[in-house]
User: What shape does this take?
Amino acid sequence: MAQGSIIKKELLLIGGSAGSLEAILQLLPAIQNEKGLAIVLVLHRRNSESLLPNLLSEKIAWPVKEAEEKETILAGTVYIAPADYHLLIENDKTISLDYSEKVHYSRPSIDVTFESAAEVYGESLIAILLSGANQDGSVGLKKIKEAGGYVIVQDPTEAVVSYMPQYAIDHVRVDAVLPVAKMPALIHELLP
Amino acid sequence: MKDEEVNILLNDLLEVYGYDFNDYSKASLKRRMQRLFALDKFPSFAEFRYRVRNDEIYLKRFVEEITVNVTEMFRDPAFYKLLRKEVLPLLATYPFIRIWHAGCSTGEEVYSMAILLQEANLLHKSLLYATDLNPDVLEKAKAGIFPLSTMKQYSENYILSGGTHDFSSYYTTRYDYAKFNRDLAQRMVFATHNLVSDGSFNQFQLILCRNVMIYFEKPLQDRVLTLFDQSLEPLGFLALGAKETLRFSDIASHYKQLGKEKIWRKGAS
Ligand SMILES: C[S@@+](CC[C@H](N)C(=O)[O-])C[C@H]1O[C@@H](n2cnc3c(N)ncnc32)[C@H](O)[C@@H]1O
Assistant: This one.
């Protein structure tokens, strides 16, 4: 399984929808960050609800912030896509926000961020797709695979809502299907 | 689509039509072009390029699709509330009020402002300049006809912004459309204006440019902010989108933010 260790992993993307918050609260505190990984979270949530960064800050040792336009993605930081904007990544690893049409009824859309990150980060990318009732994320995961990234999907039997991870498993050749509790160990293995 | 192909199309646009999108953020442009390429089912990049270079009608669609036109009435209600409570009372002291909506898209923002002005009894002495680079969205803005399906959301936004009237009194319903009352549009002036290439054309007390500069790279953002600074009277107001900021810009030191909404006031001199 995990043998990506030759390539340095720089960015961990996490996408989630309905039922993913618990998974994130379990997953993030268990990821150690001495390896210089940056994390970008794309979660479907209600408009203008901005409590998430605060909520996560209380649980995680490393800095958590809402992603700002033109900000450079730095190792050791967790960025959260703001409500009601798509988050894209530029070639110079800065963040662009985009107020265009919703994708899969969602803004931010997981696909939009995943596809854009795939082009910039290629093999140095790890992506996780969590619980949800939506098809968002699968197209992005496929792009990440094509670009050489590593793709993990939450075990649908564990997910609060199985539809989104199951849809991804049915449509993408994912690298691993795991319960959240087993993800941190795999991620640490992937980091050189 | 590759980065080089995006650049080829950008150069075509400049060379053939004089539209300069070279200083726009590339990730969004690329995504929009890819989306259009797929949507219109082009068999190859070469054919896509040929259409853009040679078909002026298709070019319109191309420009409209790569520049995002999504907009809403009373978007970010707290922003409009602050306009109502703090900005309009100050503007009321002027004998004549000039407002510029730069990048107004299909006009939802301009009609929202006209409603605020009318409720403050200021519309009769105001002029709203509504500009965009895209003439087609301006035609829609002029008509003031928006899909009926959006009215529920807009009405909720309106109430959250502090509106106390019956929102549906501002429009009449025809089929699936809401047509906004003509008196709201009476004080609006529509014109094409490209923030990349056109200069300052008047002095304003309030400039709104929301969700336009997020698509620009930093140097272009700075140039456009300087253009706004030149077009704003002392003590005038500049309003940006929810994720945009004056911070880190060349003009920041002359401006003071009102609370945490994206409204800044220019200094006295
Ligand atoms: C996302 S819409 C914003 C509409 C509205 N201000 C709002 O916040 O809801 C962006 C608009 O900016 C316009 N735009 C993009 N580049 C421009 C430029 N260089 N000059 C003028 N308008 C531009 C687009 O045509 C589009 O209508």
In short: The longest strand of chain B covers residues 232-240. Chain B has a mean pLDDT of 96. Strands of chain B lie at 97-102, 126-132, 145-147, 171-174, 177-180, 188-192, 204-209, 232-240, 255-257, 263-266. The pocket of S-adenosylmethionine is lined by residues A 99; B 67-72, 75, 103-105, 109, 132-134, 137, 194-196, 210-212, 241 (CB under 6 Å).
